[in-house]
From TrEMBL, chain A:
<dbReference type="InterPro" id="IPR046806">
    <property type="entry name" value="MrpA_C/MbhE"/>
</dbReference>
<feature type="domain" description="NADH:quinone oxidoreductase/Mrp antiporter transmembrane">
    <location>
        <begin position="125"/>
        <end position="408"/>
    </location>
</feature>
<feature type="transmembrane region" description="Helical">
    <location>
        <begin position="609"/>
        <end position="628"/>
    </location>
</feature>
<feature type="transmembrane region" description="Helical">
    <location>
        <begin position="158"/>
        <end position="180"/>
    </location>
</feature>
<keyword id="KW-0406">Ion transport</keyword>
<feature type="transmembrane region" description="Helical">
    <location>
        <begin position="304"/>
        <end position="325"/>
    </location>
</feature>
<dbReference type="Pfam" id="PF20501">
    <property type="entry name" value="MbhE"/>
</dbReference>
<feature type="transmembrane region" description="Helical">
    <location>
        <begin position="331"/>
        <end position="353"/>
    </location>
</feature>
<feature type="transmembrane region" description="Helical">
    <location>
        <begin position="416"/>
        <end position="437"/>
    </location>
</feature>
TrEMBL record, chain B:
<dbReference type="InterPro" id="IPR007182">
    <property type="entry name" value="MnhB"/>
</dbReference>
<feature type="transmembrane region" description="Helical">
    <location>
        <begin position="36"/>
        <end position="55"/>
    </location>
</feature>
<comment type="similarity">
    <text>Belongs to the CPA3 antiporters (TC 2.A.63) subunit B family.</text>
</comment>
<dbReference type="GO" id="GO:0005886">
    <property type="term" value="C:plasma membrane"/>
</dbReference>
<feature type="transmembrane region" description="Helical">
    <location>
        <begin position="12"/>
        <end position="30"/>
    </location>
</feature>
<keyword id="KW-0472">Membrane</keyword>
<dbReference type="Pfam" id="PF04039">
    <property type="entry name" value="MnhB"/>
</dbReference>
<keyword id="KW-1133">Transmembrane helix</keyword>
<keyword id="KW-0812">Transmembrane</keyword>
Length: 779, 150
């Protein structure tokens, strides 16, 4: 069932193109049935899944190397899969409304479904390589989604930056995972199991003690931090807001950016709880947590504001994983669910504001409360949950966050750092949320907005954000036992041991509640002064922005590339021949001189040498010299022909009739070709290059000649390998059904080589065809 | 091209003989010197001889095919005969043979058909190159014929 869910989602993605016809919102909802079905199927698995029991399905691929398509369902992957399919259902329905007049909706839904399939594969993978394939697929499909409006330079830039950052991190991740597998092998894991999450986690202590742990972990962290937009890789996430709002709501609130969190959460019981792990996750995550929240308080674009709170929350989750302990595991899963709910609602409502009011810039909005009362209500629910106001789901998450930091087993400096980050972020969230609501919904409409007609609550479009917004208040009030049943197995996976917990709204008056109340109070006070706060320094200079730096880096790569191309691709054949010759001398000649040459015997007198053989052999160098010295083209052709004829003669003398025939025919044909070419050129050679150039070319050509001669000598006299010839001679008739061994080799034993050669011939023809046709068209 | 009565007479006479030799070389290849590559070269020699004697327009008409397409077809045809092996789960290009030889042709199997593909490929490539070069030599002649390219 698991591979089916992933592969069917991917295979049915082209159904998205159906949205090109028919009533848009309806088609959107019809397509939303696909993820809804997966959601229902996964929900049925809930009773069977606990932290340690799994549903596992394996499709072998390269069994000898432990490579397989391996899908597994446990508490953690079930939570993520439900979030992906659940939010996905709403997003697709929403997209049908939001983009109802966009001619590209079909293409957009295609990308969205592909992305969803990739994301499902990522969280359902039971093997790091399977996970990595889908990890990369999410990078590629999100590139398509972000760059959907590809005629806007901003969208292209955002898409490219996200691809460069996440795919670059993906490279580091791949390396890290392979090293991790090697570490698992050294830790005694069976070779065909080294890439399985379970085996890696079970062997965690041995891997941590091994030498490969640190490099593997550092590389994996780069992969996870880039994907989850941690400082200093955070800047691609706000840039990715160029995507159409449904994509932002899906990718950058509920799914893609959580991939890094997911990976770290999954590896935590095996690889976690070392000084490096704790310090890296707590410091990077904690800094991003506070930094994102603070930047969010200054943003005027609603989507940018939400993007910064998103990367902040991702930092919070990563920090929690670094903190370790039972409460941290619980806090991670609760916050994942709470964040997915309120953030998807917020993004979708941001889209509604943009759609209805024509802008998502806080400076151009205002007073929407009267025009769009229902929208204002739902965004208020989501914002209150984000702020962590009591009885909302976000409050439950924040209490656990503080509890996790207070009860963490880590050393005090890290704990206090975490606690500071939590308080700063909590205050930041309150200010950011207050600003958003105040400038968009309160006050009086801006002049541009007042002139706009028909600014009102949408109907169908409001349903998808209303559901997660309502759940943000209904779950803590009524559904906590149900949510505990879903979240406890997920937390158990992160913790590594089965933990049963019951979520509760009220834990009594404890230090967590005190801290969180204090944060709310400080936030409420500071929110009054948000205007002077936003004007306060520090303001980063423009060049220090990560996106600008990356732009410069990419432009630099382009410039270097252009420089190399210009200096190498001169368009002159003699230049290319020079490069090829020098390359051959370097990569073949140098190792030949170092390793092969000392072992060669050059002169072994052959008692059977006959006079005519010596005569033919002597004729070849004479003809070569004649070719070089020739003044007219015709005599050069004739002299080259002598060389070819003598070589064929040798084939005859050494009983290779096939080779002799081929050589002779090739000689004839090349003579004709040369004649055809030379008949365009003057009859006599002209001396155009300087003597130094000619000397250089002569030396290079001589060296290549000596090299090739040496290689032939080496292959003919080597004894390092068992010769192949006897095998061919014995099996030609039996297995190849032919007595002509040469031909059987050509068409059967080494048929693949012949296939390649014929293909090369055809390619050469196409090259010549193109060259001559282009010349002809130029005239 | 070269207005020589001797060359033209010999060329006309040699065309069928060389083409038959080419097919002969192709068929005997599996047991005696020859094969698709050599056969293909002989056939293109036959056509290029016409090219030299009568010019590119005549040479184009010798086989009544587009040599570029022939080259592509040959490579395709050769590649196709590696596929049957995949259907039986064996590696690409594993050979299959008809048990009994066919009179006048010899044993038939996928390697022989592969060789036939090589034959077409070689004929197409070499002849087309020669034609391109010959037409390059005298662009006016080619444009008069109305077909600068096949």
């Amino acid at each position: 069932m698991l591979p089916a869910i992933v592969l069917i989602t991917l295979a049915l993605a082209p159904l998205g193109l159906l949205a090109r016809t028919g009533p848009r919102p309806l088609v959107g909802w019809a397509l939303a049935l696909l993820p809804a079905l997966s959601f229902a199927l996964l929900l049925f698995q809930l009773p069977q899944v606990t932290g340690t029991t799994q549903i596992r399905e394996v499709i072998p691929w390269v069994p000898a190397m432990g490579v397989e398509l391996n899908f597994a369902l446990d508490g953690l992957s079930l939570l993520f899969a439900l979030v992906i399919t659940g939010i996905g259902t709403l997003i697709i329905g929403y997209a049908g409304h939001y983009m109802h007049d966009d001619p590209g909706l079909g293409r957009f839904l295609l990308y969205l479904l592909l992305f969803m399939g990739a994301m499902l594969g990522l969280v359902l993978a039971g093997n790091v390589l399977t996970m990595f394939i889908f990890w990369e697929l999410t990078s590629v499909t999100s590139y398509l989604l972000i760059g959907y409006k590809h005629d806007y330079p901003g969208a292209r830039r955002g898409a490219l930056q996200s691809l460069v950052i996440t795919a670059g991190g993906g490279l580091a991740l791949l390396l890290g995972l392979l090293i991790l597998g090697e570490g698992a092998r050294q830790a005694g894991v069976a070779p065909n199991q080294i890439y399985n999450f379970d085996a890696i986690i079970a062997a965690g202590d041995a891997i941590k003690a091994g030498p490969l742990y640190t490099p593997a972990l550092l590389l994996i962290l780069v992969g996870a931090f880039t994907k989850s937009a941690q400082f200093p890789f955070h800047f691609w996430l706000p840039g990715a807001m160029q995507a159409p709002t449904p994509a932002s709501a899906f990718l950058h609130s509920a799914t893609m950016v959580k991939a890094g969190v997911y990976l770290l959460a999954r590896l935590a019981p095996g690889l976690g709880d070392t000084p490096l792990w704790n310090a890296a996750l707590v410091l990077v995550g904690g800094f991003t947590f506070a930094f994102g929240a603070l930047v969010a308080t200054r943003k005027d674009d609603i989507k940018a504001l939400l993007a910064y709170t998103t990367l902040s929350m991702l930092g919070g989750l990563i920090m929690l994983i670094g903190l370790g302990g039972k409460y941290a595991a619980e806090a991670v899963v609760v916050n994942i669910l709470a964040h997915a709910l309120y953030k998807s609602a917020l993004f979708m409502i941001a889209g509604i504001i943009d759609h209805e009011a024509g802008s998502r810039d806080l400076r151009q909005l205002g007073g929407l409360r009267r025009m769009m009362p229902a929208t204002a209500f739902f965004i208020a629910l989501a914002l209150l949950s984000q702020m962590g106001i009591p009885v909302f789901f976000g409050f439950v998450g924040k209490e656990l966050l503080i509890e996790a930091a207070l009860s963490s087993p880590l050393a005090d400096p890290l704990r206090y750092a975490a606690l500071t980050a939590i308080v700063v972020a909590a205050v930041g969230y309150i200010i950011a949320a207050w600003r958003l609501f105040k400038y968009a919904f309160l006050g009086t409409p801006s002049p541009t907005l007042a002139q706009r007609h028909h600014v009102a609550d949408p109907r169908g479009m409001l349903v998808p954000p209303a559901i997660p917004a309502l759940l943000s208040i209904i779950i803590p009030l009524a559904l906590l036992p149900w949510a505990s049943q879903l979240l406890a197995p997920a937390a158990s996976v992160i913790y590594g041991k089965e933990i049963g917990f019951k979520l509760a709204l009220w834990h009594g008056v404890n230090s967590a509640l005190m801290i969180s109340s204090a944060a709310i109070l400080v936030g409420a006070v500071l929110a009054r002064f948000e205007r002077p706060l936003a004007a306060m320094p520090p303001h980063l200079p423009a060049w220090a922005d990560g996106a600008t730096l990356l732009d410069r880096l990419l432009a630099g790569v382009d410039r270097v590339g252009a420089l190399i191309t210009r200096s190498l691709q001169t368009g002159q054949l003699r230049r290319y021949m020079l490069y090829n010759t020098i390359t051959l001398l370097l990569i073949t000649g140098v190792p030949f001189v170092l390793y092969v040459l000392p072992g060669l015997t050059f002169f072994s007198p052959d008692p059977q040498l006959r006079v005519y053989e010596a005569f033919a052999a002597a004729l070849i160098p004479i003809a070569v010299v004649a070719t070089i010295r020739a003044e007219s083209r015709l005599s050069a052709i004739i002299a080259v022909g002598v060389v070819g004829a003598m070589v064929s003669l040798f084939f005859v003398l050494f009983s290779a009739p096939d080779l002799a025939l081929t050589q002779l025919l090739i000689e004839v044909l090349s003579t004709v070709f040369l004649l055809l070419v030379f008949s365009i050129l003057p009859a006599r050679f002209a001396t155009l290059s300087s003597n130094t150039t000619r000397m250089r070319d002569a030396i290079l050509a001589g060296m290549v000649g000596l090299l090739v001669a040496g290689l032939v000598l080496a292959t003919a006299t080597t004894t390092s390998f068992e010769p192949l010839a006897p095998y061919y001679l014995e099996n030609s008739l039996a297995k190849g059904k032919g007595q002509n061994v040469v031909n059987v080799i050509l068409v059967d034993f080494r048929g693949f080589d012949t296939m390649g050669e014929v293909t090369v011939l055809l390619t050469a023809l196409l090259g010549i065809y193109g060259l001559l046709r282009m010349r002809r068209e130029k005239r | 091209m070269y207005d020589s009565i001797i060359l033209r007479s010999v060329a006309r006479l040699m065309l069928p003989i060389l083409l038959m030799l080419a097919v002969f070389m192709l068929l005997r290849g599996h047991n005696l010197p020859g094969g698709g590559f050599i056969g293909g070269l002989v056939a293109s020699c036959a056509i290029i001889l016409q090219l030299v004697a009568f010019g590119p327009d005549f040479a184009r008409r010798v086989l009544r095919v587009n040599y570029l397409s022939l080259a592509a077809f040959g490579v395709f045809f050769a590649a196709v005969w590696g596929l049957p092996a995949l259907l039986t789960g064996q590696p690409y290009m594993t050979a299959f043979w008809i048990p009994d030889p066919i009179p006048g042709v010899g044993k038939i199997g996928t390697p022989v058909l592969f060789d036939l593909g090589v034959f077409f490929g070689v004929v197409g490539v070499t002849t087309q190159i020669a034609l391109l070069l010959a037409e390059e030599r005298n662009p006016r002649e080619a444009s008069d014929a109305g077909t600068a390219a096949p």
